[in-house]
Write a structure and sequence with these properties.
Layout lengths: L12 H9 L3 H23 L2 H18 L9 H24 L28 H17 L3 H12 L4 H8 L3 H27 L8 H18 L4
Helix pairs in contact: 2-3, 2-4, 2-6, 3-4, 4-7, 6-8, 7-8
């Protein structure tokens, strides 16, 4: 949902930037609320951790507030902020990599991790629609987290935030052709990964084990005992 700026005030990017640079906290708050979801998703896709993404977004906002006076309108304000968020996230990945003495997986386009964490739930009542959606969202997020970072960020910006190829290219600093190819590849990998989940789930359809099995055995045994009982 778009958060409107106070009426009678111009809401073009240059005007908003001037107001924020001039100390207008209300304008900055409205700007944050307007872009929070998009920027969080970008951070989350890069860092694969909710808490880290929130921290990165907060730091990027603080950096934006300090430097917004330098905004010249060469790109949209949302694109400018997206770059700040991405830079903060990549900086965190680099620092984390140095601590772990490994190379961060920032631009890898190799194979997707294919380990599937399977959990079983037996004899659980059918969930309501909200729970089904939550479970589906969690599955999609987990599968998206398994993609290389370069694919994740493109997919989130293009498919989730519905940014144009041009704007995604500007945010990530990659050619438009690369945006298109990564988006296509990310969708293909996600479909393949989700299809594997479905194939695995098919093997458990109409599962008849656990308490189901025990109950039938107990009932049949009880009936047999009744039949074997001597007549009165």
């Amino acid at each position: 949902m778009t958060i409107p700026l106070p009426p009678t005030e111009p809401d073009d990017d240059a005007s908003i930037a001037r107001r924020v640079a001039g100390g207008d906290r209300a304008a900055f708050e409205a700007l944050m609320r307007r872009l929070n979801r998009r920027l969080f998703r970008l951070a989350r896709a890069t860092l694969r951790d909710d808490a880290e993404a929130e921290d990165a977004l907060q730091e990027a906002y603080l950096a934006a507030h300090r430097s917004i006076g330098a905004f010249r309108g060469d790109a949209s304000l949302s694109t400018w902020l997206s770059k700040l968020v991405l830079n903060e996230c990549l900086g965190r990945l680099r620092r984390q990599a140095r601590r772990q003495n490994v190379v961060p997986m920032v631009a890898l386009e190799g194979d997707v991790q294919r380990e599937v964490e399977m959990t079983e739930s037996r004899d659980v009542p059918a969930p309501d629609v909200a729970l089904v959606r939550a479970e589906m969202r969690a599955l999609l997020e987990r599968k998206l987290d398994e993609l290389p970072e370069g694919f994740r960020t493109v997919f989130v910006l293009r498919a989730v935030e519905e940014m144009s190829v041009e704007e995604t290219s500007q945010v990530l600093g990659i050619p438009e052709a690369t945006v298109r190819s990564r988006h296509f590849r990310a969708r293909s990998l996600l479909r393949e990964s989700l299809a594997q989940e479905i194939d695995l789930a098919e093997k458990d359809l109409y599962e008849f084990g656990g308490r189901h099995c025990d109950r039938i055995v107990a009932r049949v045994t009880a009936r047999l005992d009744e039949n074997d009982a001597p007549a009165a």
